[in-house]
């Protein structure tokens, strides 16, 4: 792949190939070196510099670009260190030496959510499923390696649930499944906790936030609430972890923390980025010390945020806003639905109307399901929120990190 574009790589002066062999591969790239051979020829007495400034860059990741071109985010040594310490707090991810940690998220996705750093710092065992994992492999690793904490996006856990329903796997070692990247359906949270006795912890973050911002844990006085109330609270994205400030704004200024008023989430803190790498979009996203996330949220009296939608994914129909996230979560609670994404379709009368893109579970036929899904939604939403159509797909397109690629879905439904 690199050979095809080498003439355009004018700043590159050396190529290093990562292989298990000590010989350089046959290639037209030059000069080229084998990583293993370079290491074997290194000076074992070399002392690395110890005076690296903590504010110097340590890593860079790019946003997953569900709505546009990716943006580069640089992480400092200090930012990664502080973020790593936050993962060890009892009311955060509670990372410890006794954990067996399995990030089901690639390193290019916000440094695998910082889990390899926390595992190294606290001395946890790490289980890495690799790039070509399947839900069945995850179930086997959890059982065989006695995984205690694992993390990934909702589509990962939907797939794992399907495998757990089909086979007999021991998941009793799990003390937490961490879920982020997008809102998790309430039905999925309930199934993990009631059917498999696995605590499901909803979290929120972004590439720009290293990524942890909020985490959903019940406060001490909420533990004895009725099951439905506890589930409602667990399905929020939770409260900001220590050292992070949040607020949300709309056209009228800061929103009320009443769980109803909506606004764009703003974040600041010691591991939050303050610019994109060589990108003019920095001026829009970073203002007066705050990161403008583009996520529309409510914040309740306890300080817990709930994601309503991305600003670019909200559907404006007849001058009123419709949340694609709320519709998606409701549809995915249907017993025959495996995945669902809702996008806007252009409409000459209403400007935009919602369309549901649905993947059904293996054992069910889609042909009889369209009316059932609309009827299922009818008692839950106002009539004008109901999707105009339900489009059945074999698979919903996803980004490299497993998020629904709504840009591609919008193109498809608007053809």
From TrEMBL:
Boundaries of every AMP-dependent synthetase/ligase domain copy: 31-276
Domain of life where this protein originates: Bacteria
Molecular function GO terms recorded: ligase activity
Swiss-Prot/TrEMBL keywords: Fatty acid metabolism, Ligase, Lipid metabolism
Presence of the UniProt keyword Ribonucleoprotein in the record: no
GO BP: any one term: fatty acid metabolic process
Domain AMP-binding enzyme C-terminal: 326-403
InterPro entries for this protein: AMP-bd_C, AMP-bd_C_sf, AMP-dep_synth/lig_dom, ANL_N_sf
Pfam families in the cross-refs: AMP-binding (PF00501), AMP-binding_C (PF13193)
Keyword hit for Repressor: no
PANTHER family: ACYL-ACTIVATING ENZYME, BUTANOATE--COA LIGASE AAE1-RELATED
Protein family (similarity comment): Belongs to the ATP-dependent AMP-binding enzyme family.
Descriptive protein name: Fatty-acyl-CoA synthase
Taxonomic source organism: Natribacillus halophilus
């Amino acid at each position: 792949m690199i050979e095809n574009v080498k003439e355009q790589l004018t700043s590159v002066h050396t190529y290093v190939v990562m292989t298990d062999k000590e010989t350089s591969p046959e290639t037209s790239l030059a000069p080229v070196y084998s990583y293993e051979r370079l290491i074997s020829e290194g000076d074992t007495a070399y002392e690395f510099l110890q005076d690296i400034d903590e504010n110097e860059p340590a890593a860079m990741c790019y946003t997953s670009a569900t709505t546009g071109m990716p943006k580069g985010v640089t992480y400092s040594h200090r930012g990664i260190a502080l973020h790593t310490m936050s993962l060890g707090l009892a009311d955060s991810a509670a990372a410890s030496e006794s954990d067996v940690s399995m990030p089901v998220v690639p390193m290019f996705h916000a440094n695998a959510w910082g889990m390899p750093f926390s595992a190294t710092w606290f001395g946890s065992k790490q289980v890495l499923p690799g790039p070509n994992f399947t839900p069945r492999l995850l179930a086997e690793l959890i059982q065989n390696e006695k995984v205690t904490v694992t993390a990934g996006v909702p589509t990962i856990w939907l797939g794992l649930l399907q495998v757990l329903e089909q086979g007999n796997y021991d998941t009793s070692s799990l003390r937490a499944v961490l879920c982020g990247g997008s809102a998790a359906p309430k039905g999925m949270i309930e199934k993990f906790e009631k059917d498999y006795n696995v605590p499901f912890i909803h979290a929120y973050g972004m590439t720009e936030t290293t990524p942890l911002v909020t985490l959903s844990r019940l406060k001490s006085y909420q533990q004895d609430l009725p099951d439905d109330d506890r589930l409602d609270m667990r399905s929020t994205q939770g409260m900001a972890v220590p050292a992070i400030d949040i607020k949300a704004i709309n056209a009228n200024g800061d929103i009320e923390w009443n769980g109803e008023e909506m606004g764009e989430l703003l974040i600041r803190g010691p591991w939050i980025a303050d610019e994109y790498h060589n990108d003019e979009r920095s001026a829009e996203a970073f203002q007066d010390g705050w990161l403008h996330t583009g996520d529309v949220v409510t914040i309740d009296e306890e300080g817990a945020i709930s994601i309503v939608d991305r600003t670019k994914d909200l559907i404006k129909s007849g001058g009123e806003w419709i949340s694609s996230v709320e519709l998606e979560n409701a549809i995915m609670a249907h017993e025959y639905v495996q995945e669902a994404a809702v996008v806007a379709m252009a409409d000459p009368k209403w400007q935009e109307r919602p369309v549901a893109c649905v993947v059904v579970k293996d054992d069910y036929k889609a042909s009889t399901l369209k009316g059932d899904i609309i009827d299922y939604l009818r008692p839950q939403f106002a009539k004008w929120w109901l999707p105009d159509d339900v489009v059945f797909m074999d698979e919903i397109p996803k980004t490299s990190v497993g998020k629904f690629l709504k840009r591609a879905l919008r193109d498809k439904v608007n053809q």
